Structure formats: structure tokens, C-alpha cells
Amino acid sequence: MKRTAITVVCLVLALVLCGAGLAFAAAKKAKAEAELDVGKALLDSFDLIEKGKYDAADKIIDQILQKDPGNPLALNNKAAIMVKKKKLDKADTYLNQALPRAKGYMVQVNRVCSIGGICQAFKPAPGGQGNQDLAQLVMMNIDMVKQYMSAEPLAGKGLR
User: What is the sign of the dihedral through the CA atoms of 159, 151, 76 and 113?
Assistant: First the structure.
């Protein structure tokens, strides 16, 4: 009987310690996510796009959008990545999501990545002091994506 009681106590203690470890890990992960510096993450993702590391940039942009859903620069730059991946419908969707919040969001236009010759990613301006309003640039990207989509051949049917 005494042995069974000791076994039960050990099992309960092990479960408590495991639960505490899981809670600690979850709290640490939540704190790390909360501490994401969106400005730095935007700069890092832009640098990766410039280097052609689209998957890595896409992961960072997804983290940005988890913390700041609707961030217009993140959405614009994600659209540029979708163009590179030839997912024009997704690029168009991201650009249209970016447009409402893009007005007044300033970027540095002297740092631009042309992706596939049709969609451009833009570098965030430090402290929000850029030289161009993002809304006009998002509209330009929307127009380029729509033109490219309408010029794409349909499978087995030739040009649209």
C-alpha cells in the first residue's frame, strides 16, 4: 500500500512539473512574439527579398502580419513574393488588402525591388519619414499585376 502511494505521488509530481514546463515554454513563446519589432522585421524581410531569399522573407512577413494584421507594407511586399512564385491571384488579393491602410504610410522609394519585372517591394523608411506615400505605389502594383494577369495565356486556349 505504501509503495502504491509513493508511485501515485511521483506520478502526480511528474505531471505537475511537465505542466509547469509547458506553461513556461508557452509564456516564453508568447513573450517572444509580443516583442517582435515590426520595423526591424520589415527591414530584414526587405533585405531578404533583395537577396532573392523569398521563402525566408515570407516567413518574416507572416510574423509581422500576425502581430500587425493589415500592415500595408508587409502586404505589398508579400504580394511581390507571390508574383515571384507566379501566384498572381494571391498577389492581387494582398495588394487590395494593403490599399486601404497604405494612404499616409511613407516608404523610401530609392530602395525598390522589382520582382518578375511587374511588382515592386519597398523598403520601410526609418521612423516613418519616407519620400513616397505607399498608396500610390500599391495602386501601381495592382495595375501591373492586373495587366500581367490579363495577358497570361489560358491553359490550352492561348492569350486571353
Answer: positive
φ, ψ of residue 45 in degrees (nearest 5): -65, -40
For the stretch 9-52, pLDDT in tens is 656 666 666 565 666 656 555 555 557 899 899 999 999 999 99
- Give the burial string for 7-43 (b: 16+ CB within 10 Å, else e): eeeeeeeeeeeeeeeeeeeeeeeeeeeeeeebeebbb
CATH annotation of 37-151? 1.25.40.10
Cα dihedral value 122, 87, 94, 92, nearest 10: 100
Cell numbers that stand for 123 in this block: 523598403
Taken in order 87, 117, 133, 78, is the CA torsion positive or negative? positive
The DSSP bridge partners found for residue 133 are 106
Domain borders along the chain are 37-151
CB 122 within 8 A of CB 134: yes
Q: Residue 119 forms beta bridges with which residues?
A: 115
52: Cα separation from own chain's centroid: 15
Would you say 139 and 105 are in contact if contact means Cβ atoms under 8 Å apart? Answer: no
